[in-house]
Structure formats: structure tokens, C-alpha cells
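Lab meeting minutes (informal)
Scribe: AK
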Amino acid sequence: MTKFPKPNSKRRPGARPAHAPKVTPDDVTLFGIHAVEAALANPQRQLIKLLATENAAHRLATSIQPRGITPEIVTPRRLDQLLGADTVHQGIALTTDYLPEPVLETLLENAADGQPLIILDQVTDPHNVGAILRSAAVFGCAGLIMTRRHSPPLNGTLAKSASGALELVPVHLTQNLARLLTQLKENGITVIGLDGAAQEVLDDASLSGPLAIILGAEGKGLRALTAETCDHLYRIEAPGALASLNVSNAAAVALHLVAMRRRG
């Protein structure tokens, strides 16, 4: 069994160890077993500092050792103090650089190979975006595109909700969504918007060829210019008592439908 250094009981509570790297506003702290394990497995992640309880360090020992980082063993209470008492950190926190942002051309190449793109129009809740990323990883998306403003940071809360998918799905941020949609269309990608008030239902869409699916924020939905720029608008058929789905559930339904259509 791998042995890690014990917590230093002589250090005053909350003090930074002398050897710890400095954390800056440009760094991000990830937490939770799945999010940290995926980040450790991602060679693009530049690691800065790893804090873990003894149990969590041993649980991820085979992921930690190849990266050449030595975890600082801390108590759960220390992690509560750093991350907040309500944070479900599962005994581990990893401080890293943010991932390098992929260029749009990378996502276009992925989409040309038949993988759908997911686009979010000012969806601000990190739990929703994390859940959408997880669905995108499950169903093999070309990437996720979000607006640079009015989108959640790619931080620990989002990464934990994504359950490791932040390391697997490229995320591109755009300043001008309408212009980007036009660029996608010029590259042969069909852009469809999900809108609860649309006349056509998603079940009737062909969903063939290079495809981008765009979803708006809950409540507001797609902005007017975004909806106007789409090639088609569809709604998800909802025969039940409630008329609409949570945005992350809507994304999962749409991606599953695309995957099933392309299987056969």
C-alpha cells in the first residue's frame, strides 16, 4: 500500500505549508473523486496542489502516482474550511490550471465526422451545464459551445456535476453566438434549436449529417436572434402533466434520439 505523509498536527489550523505552491485567481480547484480522478488522467491538466484525506489518497493512489504529485494529507474538516461546509468534496481537492480552450476548428472537425455539437445560449447554472457535459460524453459529442458571458465558470462545482466529463468534452467559449451559428452553417452544419413553443416536434427531424443542437436558459429559452439564426426549431413532445423538461434533461433526450437514429 502506498504511504503518504500524515497531516502535520503541529501546524496551526488553516496555515499553508511552507512548500505548497501559490494558488492564484487563474487556477481552479476541483473536488470529488470522479472529477479529480479524471483530471489526474488528463495530461493537459497542469497540476499545482493536491489535498486529500488519507482514505481518498489511497483510493486514487494509482491515478496520483503517474502524475508525480505528492498529496498533502489533510483532515475532512480542513477541506470543509477551504471549500465550504456544504461542499461534497469526498475527501479530495486538486488545484490546477484551467484547461487550454480548444479552437473552433477542432470542434468543426469533430462535427464533420458525425458527432453532434451541443450549444448553450446563456445557460448559467453550473449543475445543469455539468450534467449536460456528462450526457455529451456519454453520447459522444463533438464538443460544447457556450457564450463567454452569462455562462458558469469551468470550476469545481461544474466539474463535479460533470463527473469527469469536463476532461473529455472540449468546451469552446464564444463572444458572439449568432456569428458563430452562421459560421457553423457555412461549414455545412445544420443548427437546430430546442424551443418549447416550436411547431415541429424533434421526433420528426431527420437528425442526419453534421448537426448542432442549441438550448436556451430555463425560463427565458433561446434569445430571439439565436432562434432566428437556427435552421430549424423543434420541441420535445411532452404528453405528460408537465409541459417542459429541465435543460439538462432536454439535452440528454435530444442526444439519445440522435444516437439512436444514427445506430440504424
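Next up, CB showed the second protein from the same session:
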Amino acid sequence: MKNVFKYLRFEDKRNGKIFIITIDRPPVNAINIELLNELNLFCDDIKKDEKTRVIIFTGTGNVFSAGADLKEREKMSEKEVEDYIVNIRTTFERISELPVPVICAINGIAAGGGFELTLSADFRIASERARVGLRETALAIIPGGGGTQRLSRLIGPSKAKWWIMTARLFSAEEALKDGVVNMVVNHKNLISESISIAEEISEKGPIAIKQAKIAVDRGIELPIEKALELETRCYKKTIPTQDRIEGLKAFKEKRKPDYKGI
């Protein structure tokens, strides 16, 4: 990473193909303006990085992120609160639109904005100790970092309203049952399991992975006819690549392909 960060720690895995980004703002990794700024700088860096294939977010200690920094929030004017909501929403939009898959390894509590960060990822792997939810209505506000929209698209409007309106923190198993997380794993194996999934993805053709992400994420918002046209356009992006030829050669030669992203 080219920028210097105070609240984000980076760990390079597999020679830069996989990065683990740890939110490190004790005691609860609350999301303040400075942390949002760092997340935006990270997005700037990763978009220029052609080597990284998968990103893993996690948190320090027993908390992924407890959400917005309420101590900072209580000092804000109404206009400053409005600006913060726009900032957190657009930051999470940028994370969701990154050209590589994003995994959130949820190591503990992910509440409010912290949970909304996980919803902006492509996959969520939860520790058995994780508890997740949108607590905003208990504070007489609503989720403002994309939670009302991403959660409803993920699990449907009725379940999403149940999560939002009860303001509960749900267990990892409850989240798995509702389709909010992809996996629940033993706490001590959370990072190793997340890296294992990241490795599995990183071995696939990176251009194909990028185009598959675009096809799914953008296509879900379109009528089926337009979505199928989008799928075809995304497929066409893979046709002139050297990786496609390598995939065919490796299949014929019964060996593991070596994709270069070209």
C-alpha cells in the first residue's frame, strides 16, 4: 500500500495475491471520520494494484467493529451527521465496487456500521463467537451505510425488516440460517479458513472473477433481458485473454493452470 495508515493494518499473503486488512482502533474498532478516510485511501490504492486478487477484512480483539463512533457523533451538528452518513455510504459503495472479491472474516461483534461494512463485501465468514446486527432503530435512527438496501437484497425484505426493526444482535448460527453469512467456523480457525477460501478464489482466472462479480452485482439490478445482455458483454471480456487460452491448454494437458490476469 502506498499510503500510511493509522487504523488499518495490512498483511501480505501469497506474494501480494491476498491481503488481510485488520481494523485496529481499540477498544471496539468504532468507525470515525478518520477511519473512513483511511478506507477510501485503501480503495484508491487497491484500484491501482493489478497483483491483488482477494481482500480479507477482519478486526482486532473480539470485535470486528461496533459501528459508528458515537462519542464523535454526539459532538456533531445535524449537518455534520448528514455529511457523515453520505461519507459512510459512499465509502462502503467503493468497497463493494472493488474489482476483486472481498471477504469479511467476522471475528466478534459486527454491529451497525460495522455490520454494514460486512454487507458491502462479497462473502462473510463468521467465527462461532460472532454476533451481528443493525442496532440503529434502538437509537431512534435507521441504518445509513447501505444496511436497509444490501440486507434486503441479501435475505429479502421481510427478514431484513425483522433484523432492522428488532435491532437484535444475532448469533453466527442465526445469521447462517438466514443467509447473512456464508460460513461459520471455529474461532481459532477463522483467519486460516478465510485464507483457504481466498486461495481457492485466487487460483481462478482473475479477469473472469472480475467480470463475474460485475455480471452478478450489476445484473441483479436489471430486468432479466438487460441482465443477460450484460452477462454476454462480461463474457466477451474474457475471450481475447491469454488466461482463457491457458485454461484450455491446462485442461488438455491435465495440469493446474497458471493464470496471469492477462
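CB comment: Residues 2 and 45 are 7 Å apart (CA to CA).
No objections, moving on.
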